[in-house]
Amino acid sequence: MDFENNNEVVDLDPEVETESVENQEVAELEKVDESVETSEVAEPIRSAQDRAFADMRRQNEELAREAQEARRQAEELNATLGNWFDGETPEERAIQAQAFYEERTPEEVRAEIESQQANEAIQNELQSTKEELQSIKINTKMAEDLKTLQALDPTIKSLDDLGSDYALYIQAGLPCDKAYRAIKADEAENKVVTPKPIGAVVGDGSEETFHAADDERLNSQDFVNKHFEQIKKSMSKW
Asked: Which of 21, 82, 137, 219 has the most Cβ atoms closer than 10 angstroms to its Cβ?
């Protein structure tokens, strides 16, 4: 019996096939573009990190070389001294070498070194104590100044409330109260005063006839202009 195989051939539309190929090429190009963009963004970051790590590695290597060279020189010196001087430690051999060079006994050199070390320890302790006392003195003075200023202005909770200008005035040598008044005078001078509505002003005859110097400094320029004659008379009594 004969068997016939019927193979069906499917013809593809050339336009469909071309379109499919073009879409595939576009997708591949988009992937390449995204990869390039990502690489371009990441490249500077990697380069900066690589440079930082390279610098750190070079510094560590340089420190390691310096430490190795110092150990080598110490070992070489110790070996050289060991050929001429007895001693269980490199320090002891160095003391004997110094004593030989200065024509003194090792005991004298050792006592001198111990004395120098003791003096250095005392100086370090004195410096530390001096810094602690200075810190206590500053903190005490600040607490006293704060108490003084709070008597003038109870709203002050901390010296920081007065801003950086207060520290500048203190550094210039002004007492805390004068520094406070100087700050208030600056604030009054720079304060924008809203003009009152135009109209008749009726006095009650209770205007002050004397103004102290401190009061004048704490008032604004408008107050000075208004009471100029009274302030002028008061100045002769300040």
From this structure: 219
The model carries a pTM of: 0.38
Contact 113, 95 (CB under 8 A): yes
| Measured distance CA(86)–CA(84) in Å, rounded | 7
Decide: residue 16, CB within 10 A, 0-12 exposed, 13-18 middle, 19+ buried.
Answer: exposed
72, 79, 73: which is closest to 97 by C-alpha?
Answer: 79
Instruction: Tell me the residue type at 185.
Output: A
Q: Tell me the C-alpha to C-alpha distance, in Å, between residue 20 and each of 11, 29, 143, 175.
A: 15, 14, 84, 88
Positions of the chain with pLDDT lower than 70, given as ranges = 1-46, 77-85, 87, 192-238
State the Cα torsion 12-15-17-22 to the nearest 10°: 180
CA dihedral 83, 86, 92, 98 (to 10 degrees): -60
Terminal C-alpha separation, the chain: 142
- Please check whether residue 230 is in contact with residue 215, taking contact to mean a CB–CB distance below 8 angstroms: no
Torsion sign across C-alpha atoms 109, 115, 121, 127 = negative
pLDDT at position 91 is 82
